[in-house]
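Translate sequence into structure tokens.
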Amino acid sequence: ESIVTDPTNIDQNTWPLKYRNYGLWSSYLIYNTSKHRKKANKQTFLIPGMAFNSRQYFDRPFVSPDSNSRFNNNTYLLGNIALVRQNYYRTNYLLSFGKAEYMPYGFQFIFTSGYSWAEFMNKPYLGIGAAATIHFNNIGYLFADFDLGAHFSDTVEQGAIDVDLSFLSDIYKTGRYRNRLLTKLNYTDGINRFTNDMLYLGKDYDFVGMDEMAWYGKQRLFFEIDYITYTPWYLLGFRVAMYGFFSAGLLGSDEYSIFRNKLLSSVGIGFYVKNDFLAFHSFHLKVAYFPVTPDGVPHFGISISTLGFIRQHNYLNTKPHLVEY
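Result follows.
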């Protein structure tokens, strides 16, 4: 039932949306200056911060709590306090080919509070977050990230839960080739959201070339596995890595288990190309095949991006925010 176009969707390419977005953010890093601090505490910080954001629409479709609520005017003021530890593992073959690179590791615990003003809801907000990176010798890196936030008064409303788990293997060699295995798992769910608040599976989840609004639901579970090979090929300053991927996702309502829904999947190949002499340095090309698609939607998709294909967590980035849904 989720493999249909979202009936609440507004085509933003044909609707003349006009809005202004204002944002301010400030934080302060506090560290232990004691001469007697332990070595482990040298990279541990306490970081308080504040953020203000306001979005005001001047031209938009009809808006109500049950229709196009994502276009409502809203303002929020948030403050947080974060306990952070960050250091770096020295490695290579992440986004470069043999050069020394540094993988952040450590942890982050954040408590957030504030207030939101919107057309259909003015309520205080509370949120918590935790994240960590751990390296297991001769195995790989484990990344974990958890966020929970909601608005409170007489009831809990407009909340969200987001959980991310990733694993990146250490390098292993096959002749002149270098290889890594990358897996990702994500789960997102809402807490008493507006009825037209939806989650989707699109290009951010390797359903490339697919209409972002084609598959929708109230909760989302996503899994992906990539096998990455860094080749020794070198031509005119270009270096190439190849990868094959399989991704699968489930979308469903909050009324029953997400596993009762049809599995949506894609499989494909990609090429990561890097040239240190060019202004954009790198890009990657993905070609995906979708076994199941809505009527009228092609089974193949292609995307080109200049973003890196291996995500690294910067634990010093503690900007206060609402948990995304």
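Note: DSSP finds no helices and 17 strands in the chain.
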